[in-house]
């Protein structure tokens, strides 16, 4: 138990309840999906929700069954209603951070950017911060400030009802509802979009592994990679790309030869690396053959990448861990595949085959 993360949960309940009602087709906010998601991250020892509960009479019964402590903030002053709950929540969180050292993670459930300074202060106090909010009502400033951010509407167990239009319901009484468009028309573009999303994810993962290898001893474990991806994008979740677990994502990328996996020191935490051979050598060979196609002399770097993609449409240097096409060409020159020379008159690099 001593190795477990201990979590304290603070809910800006009005923000969550109104966000769910206004942006999730009128659905009622349910705390249980949040509780389930947090149970996977550690042991929750504090659960507090702040609101004027006279406005949420039904909700407080469900929260009580989930063992959430309800903090009553009577609000009778119009514009000052919102601030009263916010200030009390901030004071309690900071006080707890100083008084209870055993709490390692604070979960701030809100989409309000006013809580961003609180997040920064908690992280200054060496506390991990997880944010939770309804996606469409969450400020763009809040997720990047957190160590991890969970969108409520993406959590397992949240069933968002289909939106209903008043105009459509009126027309149904006056005229027949038109036949829905065939699903097949949108299925192919949707599949293409999913493929593009996974390709972009593969690029991001490969770049992250390459960066970790440069700045560390060279050994990168899956757990370290996941933490780094969350630092780059606190909203990252492999489930958004159709993978049940991070390990499943890594195995998929290994099958595509984006990564290589090896047994790590800890069970279930494999070592992750970029392929040393195979794809990189094939990419170098593609570069060499493309440059050799130009018999007139040196080839300018600008425009060369498009020529490579004509020969191999799926080419991307970022999938190999290179931050730019120039970096990829420099690596090829270091390996002796091509020669790379800067021309100050043309203000460009030129490549030739050895």
UniProtKB/TrEMBL annotation:
Regions that span the bilayer: none
Gene Ontology terms for molecular function: RNA nuclease activity
PANTHER family: HTH OST-TYPE DOMAIN-CONTAINING PROTEIN (PTHR35811:SF1), SLR1870 PROTEIN (PTHR35811)
Protein name: NYN domain-containing protein
Record-linked InterPro entries: NYN (IPR021139), OST-HTH/LOTUS_dom (IPR025605)
UniProt-listed Pfam families: NYN, OST-HTH
Domain called HTH OST-type: residue spans: 197-276, 279-354
Signal sequence bounds: none
Residue ranges of the region described as Disordered: 162-196
Source species: Phytoactinopolyspora mesophila
């Amino acid at each position: 138990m001593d190795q477990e993360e201990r979590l304290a949960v603070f809910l800006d309940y009005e923000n969550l309840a109104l966000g769910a009602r206004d942006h999730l087709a009128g659905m009622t906010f349910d705390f249980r999906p949040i509780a389930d998601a947090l149970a996977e991250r550690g042991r929750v020892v504090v659960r507090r929700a702040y609101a004027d509960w006279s406005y949420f009479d039904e909700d407080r019964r469900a929260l009580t069954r989930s063992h959430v402590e309800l903090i009553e903030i009577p609000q009778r002053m119009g514009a000052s209603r919102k601030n009263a709950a916010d200030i009390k929540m901030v004071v309690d969180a900071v006080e707890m951070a100083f008084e209870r050292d055993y709490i390692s993670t604070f979960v701030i459930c809100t989409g309000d950017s006013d809580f961003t300074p609180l997040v920064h202060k908690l992280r200054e106090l060496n506390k991990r911060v997880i944010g939770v909010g309804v996606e469409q009502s969450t400020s763009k400033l809040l997720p990047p400030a957190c160590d991890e951010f969970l969108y409520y509407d993406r959590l397992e167990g949240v069933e968002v009802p289909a939106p209903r239009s008043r105009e459509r319901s009126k027309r149904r009484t006056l005229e027949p509802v038109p036949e829905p468009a065939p699903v097949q028309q949108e299925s192919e573009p949707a599949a293409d979009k999913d493929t593009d999303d996974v390709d972009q994810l593969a690029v991001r993962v490969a770049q992250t592994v390459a960066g970790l290898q440069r700045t560390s001893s060279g050994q990168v474990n899956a757990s370290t990679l996941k933490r780094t991806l969350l630092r780059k994008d606190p909203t990252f979740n492999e489930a958004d790309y159709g993978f049940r677990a991070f390990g499943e994502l890594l195995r998929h990328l290994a099958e595509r030869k984006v990564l290589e996996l090896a047994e790590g020191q800890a069970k279930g935490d494999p070592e992750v690396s970029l392929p040393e051979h195979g794809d990189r050598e094939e990419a170098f060979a593609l570069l060499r053959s493309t440059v050799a196609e130009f018999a007139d002399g040196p080839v300018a770097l600008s425009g060369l990448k498009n020529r490579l993609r004509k020969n191999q449409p799926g080419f991307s240097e970022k999938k190999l861990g290179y931050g730019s096409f120039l970096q990829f060409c420099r690596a090829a020159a270091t390996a002796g595949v091509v020669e790379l020379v800067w021309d100050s008159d043309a203000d460009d690099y030129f490549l030739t085959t050895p």
